[in-house]
Design brief:
Chain lengths: 105, 449
């Protein structure tokens, strides 16, 4: 591949990456949360009613992954742990027993 | 002066050792796994000059504790939750600042009070963020945790003593000290700091928040930042090309984390190949073929799967000729959403790891997959499952999956064979019997001659 072609390809990819980020900023749906979390934990699965099944991982691995994608631990709520993303103002719950993640209703 | 200093410190220490769970113990509790596994924790913010190894040493004895051994995973989870918490970090470093700040004589007692207050504040902050079980756990491990807490309070004490020694005034003429309003200056400085803090708070809550209340402004700012970031990456890249990119490719990767991630994600991908259908034409959105007999499938499964993830959106995914992958959905990053999955001639045993979201319930069609033993792993919302040829023997193997409709050849399943026998080869009667038995509409197809 020539230098010029490589520059063009990489530029294109940079733009794609930027668009992805912009859409992440603009939208905050469940699908996006799932996609970004899946980059960290590739075995997670979607269950009905916007539930993410992360039971294949250990609790600390899930917490680390949530932190990586911008969710900070807030407080326990019953058997759930409340995580909050400052940028998107979205709350998630991690159910400790089942290791499932739910969006705040 | 020195006496009052040690008195106050001893109060902190007493507080630590007398109560069942001392305030400092909560700080120890959340940092156990951080120091045992990561070698660094929040306490580093409180003792920035102390070598991490010596802090880690305090935690060494926890390893031998039975409660810890039994609940190692729980401790890891707790540490990872609190690790890097910005509020805690700030509170910890405030203690360090209070320890080391130079104060006048009258301020020293106040400083000790402040430290105590802060320790109480931190412990309350942590306590409120622990679950019931975790509070029970700290009770069980209190002896070890309290003894580490004693180490910490001793370290705070020695820091304060060292500071007190450094501050001890040289013997001077008492008359001359009367003339200088030393303490007043210090108090003023304290007031000034308080005022600065208040002003910052007002700016943050009133002015900045007002500015960002307009959502549009916020978005524009973010987008602008991203564009600038993109430009910066491009500029770095072009610069590097001119400097001899091909020779120094590794240096380029190291320069920007973002860029490295980008290259890692996309470098192995060859779009031309990935997008091609078996007939050579290219179809982006509606259909996608993954053919294991093609060279590129084996060459880079990860790159391919990424491409699928990116390209296919609500279309049909065809998977064929993949051998040696009994749980082929364990391949990284299959597409997120598609309406239909057609699998043929694969070594598929079960749908374990299947995390593709099927649009509107979706349809899965399996043909010539002789090893398929179970439908476990398929989404329970699946509407339509068809199974052509193969040796799928038991409908009982569905697990939680109850597709609305199943299409199968009569001779391929045990239940279907039995139902047909019972109904004297009356297909409709057999279908009805099967529906009663399983609660699923099962269409029995007549095999093509």
């Amino acid at each position: 591949m020539k230098k010029e072609e490589l520059v063009e390809v990489i530029t294109q990819r940079v733009l794609e990456k930027l668009n992805e980020r912009i859409s992440l900023l603009e939208s905050s749906g469940f699908d996006i949360i799932f996609t970004s979390l899946r980059k960290e934990l590739n075995k997670i699965a979607i269950l009905p009613d916007n539930v993410i099944d992360a039971s294949q991982y250990k609790e600390h691995e899930i917490v680390d992954a949530l932190k990586k994608i911008g969710y900070e631990y807030k407080k326990p709520m019953g058997n759930k742990l409340h995580f909050f993303n400052k940028k998107t103002s979205i709350s998630l719950y991690l159910i400790q027993k089942t290791l499932k993640i739910t969006l705040m209703p | 002066m020195k006496k009052t200093q040690t008195k106050k410190v001893s109060i902190i220490k007493e507080d630590v050792s007398s109560a069942n769970i001392s305030p400092i113990s909560y700080m120890v509790f959340i940092d156990i796994s951080s120091y045992l596994f990561k070698g660094r924790g929040l306490l580093n913010s409180m003792f920035p000059t102390k070598p991490t190894e010596s802090i880690t040493k305090w935690f060494g004895k926890v390893k031998e504790d039975e409660t810890y051994k039994e609940n190692e995973e729980a401790f890891k989870a707790i540490s990872s939750r609190f690790m890097g918490n910005p509020i805690l970090k700030k509170l910890y470093s405030s203690i360090d600042k209070l320890k080391t700040v130079s104060t006048g004589e009258t301020d020293q007692s106040e400083r000790d009070k402040d430290i105590e207050k802060l320790l109480g504040k931190i412990s309350l902050f942590i306590k409120n963020r622990l679950t019931k079980k975790e509070r029970e756990l700290i009770g069980k491990i209190s002896t070890v945790v309290n003894s580490i807490g004693n180490n910490i309070s001793s370290a705070i004490k020695s820091d304060l003593e060292a500071m007190a020694k450094a501050e001890e005034p040289a013997p001077t003429n008492p008359e001359s000290t009367e003339e200088k309003p030393k303490t007043e200056v210090k108090v003023n400085e304290r007031l000034k700091n308080k005022l600065r803090k208040k002003i910052k708070e007002i700016v943050r809550t009133n002015i900045i928040n007002q500015h960002y209340k307009t959502e549009g402004v916020f978005k524009m700012k973010k987008q602008k930042d991203l564009v600038n970031e993109g430009r910066r990456i491009q500029e770095t890249f072009l610069k590097k090309v001119n400097e001899g990119f091909f020779d120094k490719i590794k240096d380029v990767f190291r320069d920007s984390e973002d860029f490295t991630a980008l290259i890692k994600q996309f470098a192995p991908l060859d779009r031309e190949k990935v997008l091609k259908k078996p007939d050579g034409t290219v179809d982006v959105a509606d259909n996608f073929w993954v053919d294991g007999t093609k060279e590129w499938m084996d060459a880079d499964k990860k790159g391919l799967a990424l491409a699928v993830n990116k390209i296919l959106n609500k279309g049909i995914l065809h998977i064929m000729n993949i051998t040696g992958q009994p749980t082929l959905f364990k391949l990284e990053r299959w597409p997120r959403i598609c309406s239909e999955v057609k699998i043929s001639k694969c070594d598929l045993v079960s749908f374990e790891g299947f995390s593709i979201q099927l649009e509107g319930g979706g349809k899965v069609e399996v043909t010539e997959c002789d090893n398929l033993k179970s439908l476990k792993g398929l989404p329970s919302s699946l509407k339509d499952f068809s199974f052509g040829y193969g040796l799928f023997k038991n409908f009982e193997d569905f697990g939680d999956v109850k597709p609305a409709r199943i299409v199968t050849l009569p001779g391929t399943t045990k239940m279907a064979v039995e139902a047909l026998k019972a109904s004297n080869n009356d297909v409709k009667a057999a279908e009805e019997a099967l529906k009663k038995q399983t609660g699923i509409t099962i269409s029995l197809l007549v095999p093509k001659q």
